[in-house]
Amino acid sequence: MSYVNVKGKIYRLSDTTEGKSIVTHCIEKTDVQFKRHYSCYYRRIDVIDINEWYDLKFVVEYNDLFLPEQQLWEVCFDNPRKEPLKANEIVLSAFGAIRNAGWYTNGRDVSLKIITVNECLRVYLRYTYYKKNGKELECPVCETREVSHDEFIDAIKLHREDYL
User: pTM for this structure?
Assistant: First the structure.
């Protein structure tokens, strides 16, 4: 998913044939230029107004008893439960039906497991920058940073749809 920093605020970026738009669910991040669409607000934006433009993946090192060969996991934002995730909870995704403790499955395609960040051995933020420090980049630049569990949770909060 692409995100942008515009005037110190983080938004989701929607890039369509009609152009680029910034999207938020937080009314406090809007001004008179934003339009409402169901539960979100959006407005068109020009690349020149974007300070930073990046994709962000949340990656964890986690040992699962039933998938020991899988060490690195990309966090998934699907929630298999009806109640919201707690601040320190993340969801892992695996292909196929895993019918063991802790895993939710739809029966055949995908299984999801909710764990806490503290269960992870290491946590990483994997950025792919398209524009950084106000400068558009000729080629995307990838950076992976190991961060503390608290920094990881803060980054998730900042980029989860319900916080954007």
Answer: 0.88
